[in-house]
Every structure is written in structure tokens, then in C-alpha cells.
Design goal:
The protein is mainly α. The chain is about 80% helix and about 0% strand. The chain contains eleven helices and no strands. The longest helix is centred in the C-terminal third of the chain and has 39 residues. It is globular, with a radius of gyration of 22 Å. The model has no long low-confidence stretch (mean pLDDT about 90).
């Protein structure tokens, strides 16, 4: 089943690349604006061993991982607290709904003022962007825990901490990890967007911006964007693999239902 999905996904990707190659080769679009995909992939292969580009990739990954880790450390305990205390949940709901639609990109000017170091600035924006999907998933997961299971445990004399540890958290954990997976993709977009708009010294966004100086090289721009997409694909695949290993019972149940 997985091999079939991978084969279909690869076929779809190759098909899109073939269409873009044909459009460029046929002259339907300006080749300076849309170079042939074979040229783009050749440049992408060259970037894979380019030391300067690898430094840029490392800088973006450092901000991505740091901001995402901070968001997990804050959002999960906060979600557990709000999900376990109905009074706090009700009191904070309006504030959460007010803050979470604010895009991180809109806060770049504020981050520039607050943080002189580009890494801290990027991490702070990633933290803000990742906080909400993880927090919301944690809250909804705890609300959906089977009340009969909790009441059964309480009827045997278990207190709130025991119910939380033995029933609520194991039941909510797969959904929390899904929130982390969603946040990981958002974080990569925020890192590169921040580098493009706010500048700095190193990063994939800085590289993409530099490719457009001195006349611009669209092939280099698309080659850098290709690796940004590959990083997102790899991060998502890694988190799915961790989710399947850590919560094998939930994966089997979901696949059985589907």
C-alpha cells in the first residue's frame, strides 16, 4: 500500500516536471522566467554540494528546529492545563481566538525591534506560528477523550492526575503529534519568509533573495526553492514515521476504519 502511494506520488511529480519542461522548451513562456526543469534540477544537484548553500540550509534548519522545539515545550503543557481546567479554558478561549489568526509575517517589524540577533528573531516568529496548531490540537484532543473511560477510572478511586496520565494523555497524544507535524510545515514557511523580508546573514531565504540580484537567475531561485520543498517533505516524512512507531495502535485503528 505504501509503495503504491509512493509510486503514484513520484509519478505525479515527474508528470508535472515533464509538463513544465515541455512548456519551457516549446517557448510558451519566457525561458528566463521559467527555465527548463532539467536546468533547474541540474542546479539543484550542484547546490547539494555547495558549501555556501549548505551553510544557508543549516541556518534555516537551526531556526526551524529551535522555534518548533520551544513551541512544543510551551504549547503542550499549556494545552494540557487549559484542557484539564474548564474555568481556565473558558477564560482563555477569546484570547486564543483573537491571537491565533494573526500571521507571523505581520509581526516581523516587531520582531526586528525586539531581537537584534537574526536567529532569535526567526525563532521567535516560528515559535509564535507553531504555538497555535499545537495548542489547538492539544485542546481538542483532550476534549474528545472518551468520558466513559475517564468516569470508569474515577469510579475505581483514581484522582484527576491519574486519569490525566492513564487515559487522557495516551488518548490525546496522536492528535498532539499531528499538531506538531502541521506546525513543522508552517515553521519552514515562516523561517524562509522571515529571511526574505527581514534579511540577515545566512539562510535559504537569503540565498533566494541573492539569486535575484544583478539581473536575477530564475533557475537558481527555483533550485533553492526545490530544496526548501525537499526539506519540508523530509521533515513531514520523519514525523509521520515517528508517529507510526510511537502510536502503532492508533495507526492500525485509523487504517482499519479507512
Amino acid at each position: 500500500m505504501n509503495l503504491r502511494r509512493i509510486a503514484l506520488g513520484a509519478a505525479g511529480g515527474v508528470g508535472v516536471l515533464a509538463v513544465l519542461e515541455g512548456v519551457s522548451r516549446a517557448g510558451l513562456l519566457d525561458r528566463d522566467a521559467l527555465p527548463p526543469m532539467t536546468t533547474v534540477l541540474t542546479e539543484a544537484g550542484r547546490l547539494a554540494v555547495d558549501e555556501d548553500f549548505l551553510v544557508d540550509v543549516g541556518a534555516s534548519l537551526q531556526a526551524w528546529a529551535g522555534g518548533l522545539a520551544l513551541a512544543v515545550l510551551v504549547a503542550v503543557p499549556l494545552g494540557v492545563l487549559l484542557g484539564s481546567v474548564p474555568l481556565l479554558d473558558t477564560a482563555s478561549r477569546a484570547l486564543v481566538e483573537l491571537l491565533r489568526p494573526i500571521p507571523s509575517v505581520a509581526l516581523i517589524p516587531l520582531a526586528i525591534i525586539l531581537f537584534a540577533d537574526p536567529l532569535q528573531m526567526k525563532m521567535s516568529l516560528v515559535f509564535y506560528a507553531c504555538l497555535w496548531p499545537i495548542l489547538i490540537n492539544t485542546l481538542y484532543a483532550l476534549r474528545d477523550v472518551d468520558p466513559l473511560a475517564k468516569e470508569t477510572l474515577r469510579s475505581f478511586g483514581f484522582g484527576t492526575p491519574s486519569v490525566l496520565w492513564r487515559v487522557s494523555l495516551p488518548s490525546a497524544a496522536p492528535f498532539i503529534v499531528t499538531g506538531v507535524r502541521i506546525a513543522a510545515s508552517v515553521a519552514l514557511v515562516v523561517v524562509i519568509s522571515t529571511e526574505l523580508f527581514a534579511g540577515g546573514w545566512d539562510g535559504i531565504g537569503i540565498y533566494l533573495s541573492d539569486t535575484q540580484s544583478g539581473g536575477g537567475r530564475t533557475d537558481l531561485l527555483l533550485a533553492g526553492a526545490f530544496w526548501a520543498g525537499m526539506l519540508g517533505l523530509l521533515a513531514n516524512g520523519l514525523l509521520i514515521a515517528i508517529e507510526r512507531i510511537a502510536f502503532r495502535w492508533n495507526t492500525a485503528r485509523v487504517e482499519g476504519v479507512s
